[in-house]
Design goal:
α6 crosses α7 and α10 crosses α11. This protein is an alpha+beta fold. A 5-stranded mixed sheet has the order 6-13-12-8-10, covered by helices on one side. A 5-stranded mixed sheet has the order 15-22-21-17-19. About 1% of the residues have low confidence. It contains 18 helices and 22 strands. 30% of the residues are buried. The chain is elongated and about 155 Å long.
Length: 601
């Protein structure tokens, strides 16, 4: 197929071409007439209804229908249309530009490559094109007015964007992007805020304006200068290095400005990281601490004069002591100390001195439990964060107790325990299991002379009325440990089984424990039978039996407590464990004095 010559630009095109590859003119006139330069083979219609018959109209449509055109390019509609009219070169251009990340830049590039001849679209101009702000101070704010102008025809549309990361640069409303839309000119306010920036340092960024009339970048630059120190002999200093050099020459003069925080606030105001972390040292040691934080002085190796100390105290003692932190280097030592227990108090939490510093502390025996060894730690944070520890052991002796009191306390403790336990058993064992649930003759004078196991129903009735105690105890025990509901339910089931076994065991043992009151009761019964007192008075004899059983148990408990005290520590430990439920009950009602009755030495 012979090559075709463009009738307008005289360029040679392939024989299969329909339009000129250079100016878009039709190479084969239609219907015998002359083709319109840049005419489209088919009309293109935008979503708004705008119809384009030539490339000039197509370009103008893209400029005025910028949002729709951007979407049509992105979804491939332009590439499909241009391929359909035989402009494979422009279809390839559409496919290449639609892959760009920024849709506005992609559309601008695509439109600029279309073979339009008579259309003059929008044209972007910005004033100023370059911004040099000179020197700014930390925490200074400045506003910049940008004038966006359209020196072409049509509607200039696009966006102005601030790069991510340059937080000191923002638009007036705090956003990082705004729309550009104007037929002539548009004012945009940009703010520069140096708060939090570190100086002295140069900062630069650029505003990117992408429109249908062009793409422009506006560079912005300024030099941030530090705010000078404004007090005392250090007035006018403008950098941390200069401050350190001046402190080295005048260390004593620097102490008040370090202690009152002026130096730290000056660092923070200039956006610098203050080199000192943790508690501030006192005196000239604060200067040494500053130098170490700045990396201008190597911290000395420090150690405590002792790592462990023991105290043996009596109740009411308040003992003071101290420990030294030292170094072999000819440098200042500073440290901050704190205790991890209330009875160990550091009285000089912040210390410092040349090559040595002394930490004082006190041990208060009133805050410790007598007869029990206590352990506390004093944690020391020294030069450059070196951590040391002093272990303090304290043992407080129990207060002296007279021999008679030590002898009688187990006696009365055993008596009270037996009295309480027998009173608790009176309801389920004597009243219910023997009288209410027993035979018709139960509760009479003669019935109390016999063992409760004679009728064969005592154990059963006693278990029925007391097994639930184990279930409640199991559920409460797991609930206090913060267990799940399923675990609490399992605890209740396990406790119920244990309650049945325990109740049956106690029901079988109780007749043996009631042997003494039953022997006394037989003597009472023999005497009553010789009088005119009614032997069938159930309520009367039941009350008398309970009183007698409680008195006998109390006497046996007193004897048992005395015998256990004679055994020594194992016997007292057994008595103390038996009293756990009672002491818990006393503590629940705030009866601390009664609870101390069972605190055996």
């Amino acid at each position: 197929m012979p090559a075709l010559l463009c009738p307008r630009c005289k360029h040679t095109n392939p024989g299969e071409a329909v339009f000129c590859y250079f100016d878009g003119a039709e190479l084969r006139p239609m219907h015998g007439g002359r083709a319109t330069p840049g005419q489209l083979l088919h009309d293109f219609v935008f979503p708004s209804g705008r119809r384009c018959r030539t490339f000039d109209e197509f370009v103008q449509g893209c400029q005025y229908e910028w949002d729709d055109a951007r979407d049509l390019l992105k979804n491939g509609t332009f590439a499909q249309f241009l391929g359909g009219i035989g402009r494979m070169d422009l279809a390839q251009t559409a496919r290449e530009t639609q892959t760009q990340a920024n849709a506005d830049i992609a559309l601008h590039t695509f439109v600029s490559r279309l073979p339009a001849t008579q259309v003059q679209g929008p044209r972007l101009e910005i004033t100023p094109r370059r911004v040099a702000l000179g020197k700014l101070r930390v925490n200074e704010k400045k506003q910049l007015q940008l004038k966006v102008q359209n020196s072409g025809k049509g509607l200039l549309r696009g966006t102005l964007t601030i790069p991510e990361g340059d937080d000191w640069l923002r638009l007036e409303d705090g956003r990082r992007q705004c729309s550009v839309m104007t037929a002539r000119d548009q004012q945009i306010t940009v703010e520069i805020d140096t708060e939090g920036l570190a100086g002295p340092q140069a900062y630069s960024s650029k505003l990117t304006v992408i429109t249908n009339g062009g793409v422009v970048e506006v560079p912005i630059r300024f030099d941030l200068v530090a705010s000078p120190f404004a007090a005392g002999p250090f007035q006018g200093i403008g950098s941390p290095r200069e401050m350190a050099e001046r402190m080295r020459a005048q260390p004593k003069a620097a102490v008040p400005y370090l202690e009152n925080g002026d130096v730290q606030r000056w660092f923070e105001a200039n956006g610098w990281t203050y080199p000192v972390t943790g508690p501030l040292a006192k005196g000239v040691a604060a200067v040494q601490q500053f130098f170490e934080g700045m990396g201008l002085s190597k911290p000395p190796a420090v150690q405590l004069s002792r790592e462990e100390v023991s105290f043996f105290l009596t109740p009411g003692d308040l003992t003071t002591a101290d420990v030294a932190i030292t170094t072999t280097s000819k440098k200042w030592v500073y440290a901050h100390a704190e205790s991890d227990v209330p009875w160990l108090k550091v009285t000089t939490p912040s210390v410092g001195g040349p090559q040595q510093a002394t930490i004082s502390y006190e041990v208060d025996s009133t805050l410790m439990e007598p007869g029990r060894a206590s352990v506390g730690m004093i944690r020391v944070v020294a030069n450059a964060g070196q951590i040391l520890a002093l272990r303090v052991l304290a043992d407080v002796a129990r207060p002296h107790e007279p021999f008679t009191r030590r002898l009688l306390r187990p006696f009365f403790a055993g008596a009270i325990l037996a009295l309480i336990f027998r009173l608790l058993l009176a309801g389920p064992a004597d009243v219910y299991a023997r009288v209410l649930a027993g035979s018709p003759s139960s509760g009479s004078l003669q019935s109390w002379t016999q063992s409760p196991t004679v009728d064969g129903t005592f154990v059963k009735h006693f278990v029925v009325v007391t097994w639930w105690v184990g279930a409640v105890a199991g559920a409460v025990l797991l609930a206090r440990r913060g267990s799940r509901w399923s675990d609490i339910a399992c605890g209740a089931i396990t406790g119920a089984v244990a309650g049945v076994i325990g109740a049956a065991t106690l029901a079988c043992t109780l007749p043996l424990l009631d042997t003494l009151p039953r022997m006394v009761w037989k003597l009472i019964a023999a005497f009553v039978q010789q009088t005119s007192i009614r032997a069938e008075a159930v309520v009367l004899w039941t009350i008398i039996w309970i009183v007698l059983a409680v008195l006998c148990w109390t006497a046996m408990g007193a004897v048992a407590g005395f015998l256990l005290s004679c055994v020594g520590k194992p016997g007292l430990a057994l008595l103390r464990r038996a009293a756990v439920p009672v002491t818990w009950l006393f503590g629940l009602f705030g009866m601390r004095n009664a609870e101390e009755l069972f605190a055996f030495q």
